[in-house]
Amino acid sequence: MSTAGERHITTSSDGSTTIWVPGLDEHYHSIHGARTESLHVFIEAGLKAATARPVRILEVGLGTALNAQLTFETASDLGIEVHYTALEKFPITNQEAIALGEAGMQEALPFLMATPGVAMRLENSSFTLLVEDLRNYNAENEAFDLIYFDAFAPSAQPELWSDAVFEKMHRVLAPGGILTTYCAKGVVKRSMKAAGFEVEALPGPPRKREMTRAWKR
Question: Is this prediction's pTM over 0.85?
């Protein structure tokens, strides 16, 4: 998720922390439960559905690093090796990261304060933060097994939900790879299908009827 505007730390209904961006009137995660949404959309429907070992993950929108934190916690519990690349055009500042830590997100701090472009080792896994726009990201020589597509909603950032973007996401996925997202809009699913994805609608997190998972067969 990205924005160059003002950001405010707030608490979602399950007690976990998120960020509100007044300029876009958007939250980094669901106000009905940031942690609950992340576990449902990205861990259960994404990480636990991926069969590749190790799992190579691309996240579109690091945000508060909640998805990264939960991924590495779950991977450690399950004994899964993970190599994680996170794209974030406007990363959290060190001052904001400290405030998030004080708000209960201490476990996310290593990811939020990672040196961009330098792989951080975590046991036999790795995490790399790249500060760049998804549309400019050169991933032609990479192949991922799982994409967490966690950009702001299409109404706020339509340029990140285009046909061209999903064509690019399809190219960088390995055969059998997964793209998972909270978004279930028909126009988004049509773009995914046009890019070559096999698309399925899954039950959504609290207060959301559906989410979307797409496969590269």
Answer: yes
Alpha carbons within 13 angstroms on the beta-carbon side of residue 91 total 21
d(CA 117, CA 87): 10
Of residues 147, 166, 192, the one with CA closest to residue 56? 147
Q: ∠ CA 132-118-29 to the nearest 5 degrees?
A: 50
Pairing mode of beta strands 198-203, 210-215 = antiparallel
pLDDT digits (tens, 9 = 90+) for 31-72: 889 999 999 999 999 999 999 999 999 999 999 999 999 999
Contact 41, 180 (CB under 8 A): yes
- Side-chain-facing half-sphere of 48: CA atoms under 13 Å: 13
Domain boundaries, the chain: 33-215
Q: Annotate 134-166 with DSSP letters as a single string.
A: GGG---TT--EEEEEE-PPPTTT-GGGGSHHHH
- The CATH homologous superfamily to which domain 33-215 belongs is Vaccinia Virus protein VP39 (3.40.50.150)
